[in-house]
């Protein structure tokens, strides 16, 4: 879905504070958009009027710093601009919930997150078991959201730069631009760099092997295609292969390597 497909008719701002909400509404009005702000300073009479106007379509922008829970009933709202960072999952879900309600003729909803909330709580598509109509029940076991950013400041193995999309944490490739994760070009600048690169490479070999059905001989050949192998590189390989004693195996591999050298 793109902004173009979504009628920018019913927008909701969530601002940081009263001044911010007022300023956002003011700016929207300057752009020729029928906008109002609802804050704790708004007179009850005005508040009622703004909410009524918004529900009937006479207002297209509503800015607020709270959650507009009391007396707010506008399932047609389809765009939310999050300008307020929140650590509370419930507040996040309430903000999202403003545009996720079904309404006749409504095809989609657009969430524009200017506050980085998606990094703290995850993408709306990935939040499971949300009962928004029942007050926004927090999903269980919430730690960090299982997402990562497709990097725009880093090149992958093929020299490709990412696209800044958010993708599931375990993606090996960005589904939007094809960026390959964990395959940075090896830049052998010193032993330490080499060591981390070897470990990353070994992990990558296993990922590729799993993906393309390569066997253990392929893996072993790949391992020995690396230079400056250390005992801990072998140990990682042994661990990933599922050996019972990867430490001991790594020790003997190192002995063999030294003899060959
Ligand atoms: Zn990407």
Automatic annotation (TrEMBL):
Coiled coil: none
Domain Helicase C-terminal: 1-146
Superkingdom of source: Bacteria
Keywords tagged on the record: ATP-binding, Helicase, Hydrolase, Nucleotide-binding
GO cellular component: cytosol
UniProt protein name: Helicase-related protein
PROSITE patterns the record matches: HELICASE_CTER
Naturally occurring in which organism (per UniProt): Pseudocalidococcus azoricus BACA0444
Xref: InterPro entries: Helicase_C-like (IPR001650), Helicase_Restrict-Modif_Enz (IPR050742), P-loop_NTPase (IPR027417)
Transmembrane segments annotated in the record for this chain: none
GO molecular function, one term: helicase activity
Gene3D superfamilies in UniProt: P-loop containing nucleotide triphosphate hydrolases
Keyword Ligase: no
